[in-house]
Amino acid sequence: TLEGSGTGDSRPHVPFTAKSLTTGQTVKLLDYAHGEVQPGPDNTVFVRGGSVEQGDGLFRISIGADGTPVAEAVAVTGLPVALGYLGAQIPQPFDVASPVPLKWKLSRENADVDLRITHRATGKSFSKTLNLYSESAGSPYYYHDDTFGITWAQIAAESQMGKDAEVGTYDWSFTARPQNGVGPDLKASGSFTAVKNVSSPHDLDWDGGPDLLVRDTAGVLWRADSEYDPARKTLTESWTDRIGPGWQIYDRIETIGGVGGGAADFVARDKSGVLWLYDVTGNGYKPTIAGRKQVGGGWNTYTQLTGGSDLDGDGRPDLVAVDKAGALWFYKGTGNVAAPFATRKKIGTGGWGIYNQITLTGNIGGAAGGDLIARDKDGVLWLYLGKGDGTFTARKQVGGSWGAYTDTIGIGDANRDGRPDLFAYGPNKTAYFYAGTGDYRKPFDTRVASPVLTDQPAYNHVS
Predict the structure, then answer these.
(1) Do 395 and 440 form a contact (C-beta atoms < 8 A)?
(2) How far is the C-alpha of 225 from the C-alpha of 222, rounded, in Å?
(3) What distance in Å separates the CA atoms of residue 299 and residue 456, rounded to the nearest whole number?
(4) pLDDT the model gives residue 144
């Protein structure tokens, strides 16, 4: 006789077994089975199920040479049987003030996870068992696509370590136990660096993925929410959120990072030269954009401006601008939304007028501070390494043919490897993702085509 049960849910599985009616001996054939057993030729049967050794699929049950039943895989589905660890999804560095969760991906969801997080310097720790399931009311620690995690707010609600929120290095480890009893326990470990209330360079909703502000030809402003796809190694678009009409009154819109820390803010310059600040509050799902605040007039003296990167090491995003005479000016971020920038300081005398686009990128070259890339009129891209004091070293050529893009944007660390990345948008709705390498000699990896904005209407401004 054949006995067994099982589905992909969390209920304990009964192994699929064969029992001899003569001796009473029981032989385990599969870790689970579901559906009806179908008869086959020559005293065989077929069953849908799986085992840790052979995987999930369709199996033929037959009598072996020694008279004992055996299960042979006829076709496998590729679905996981044993729990597998597919990596951590933790921003580097991780901001303990943000709503972005620490996340890990498994090969399947139905597991109980014993998680431990320890601050390396103090030894303070947090431990909790996370029961993962997606059915019914769901688990507060299960997100989607076999990914689980926990926010720092959840940690703080249950531990002094979370309330103290020390910066520095944390070690994490977990043991995941399959709820259905199929396969061995899974162990994984790693570490991350924590910071507190640090500016997000291009994340308006504060969900951990970069956002783009885009304006269509009718003057409507949109926010394109994006995320990194590790399988395709590029930036993909989650959705596009309509902000509103009337943005054609501005000739420049720039995301500048979180002025007071947290979600990224942005500035817009009107055609009379007045610069306006839009303070953004992110909650991990959707941003709230406050009414505009006037920064000041006279900004039409600048042909180029860019922001969002910390150039002087104080943890606040700064802004630089090129005037009509070709001089480069540094605006130090104050951390105060009411007066976001200190008095300007000239950091480059002439010569910057040769560029038709400049972009602050964050620290892409591995030197002391935030860096800047500049594109000349021949399409050649140049890298200026930040010294960490608001100034830059002599330029280094990155490469040519960058004139193919209308916008190059320092989007922050999209792929969560600790290095800032770049997004490029061009005519005919083409888009590319450039992963940062951390090496000033080759600051960007080979470009990968991105679907972001490519299936949308054409935009006349992307930032």
Answers:
(1) no
(2) 10
(3) 31
(4) 85
Whose tokens are 């909703």? That residue is 205
d(CA 231, CA 321): 37
pLDDT at 373 over 60: yes
E-strand stretches of 132-281 = 147-150, 168-178, 186-195, 211-216, 221-229, 234-244, 250-257, 265-270, 275-278, 280-281
Q: Which amino acid would we find at residue 180? A: N
Question: Which pair of tokens denotes residue 92?
Answer: 């580097």
Alpha-carbon gap, residue 435 to 362, rounded angstroms: 13
Residue 9 has pLDDT above 70, yes or no: no
Report the alpha-carbon distance of residue 367 to residue 160 in Å, rounded.
Answer: 36
CA dihedral for 266, 270, 276, 279, sign (positive or negative): negative
Lowest mean pLDDT among 83-92, 129-138, 396-405, 410-419: 129-138
SS3 183: coil
Q: What is the pLDDT of residue 1?
A: 46
Q: In terms of residues, how long is the chain?
A: 463
Q: Whole-model pTM?
A: 0.84
Residue 397 burial (10 A CB sphere; 0-12, 13-18, 19+)? exposed
User: pLDDT at position 347, please?
Assistant: 97
Q: What is the mean pLDDT of residues 61-67?
A: 90
Confirm if 408 and 401 have CB atoms less than 8 A apart: no
Query: Which residue is associated with the tokens 């890339």?
Result: 373
At residue 162, the 3 state secondary structure works out as helix
The tens digit of pLDDT for each residue in 156-208 reads 999 999 999 999 999 999 999 999 888 999 999 999 999 998 888 999 999 99
| β 94-95/186-195 pair status | parallel
**Cα–Cα distances in Å, from 392 out to 108, 178, 322, 386?**
48, 53, 14, 4
**Which range (31-35, 100-104, 394-398, 432-436) has the least confidence?**
31-35
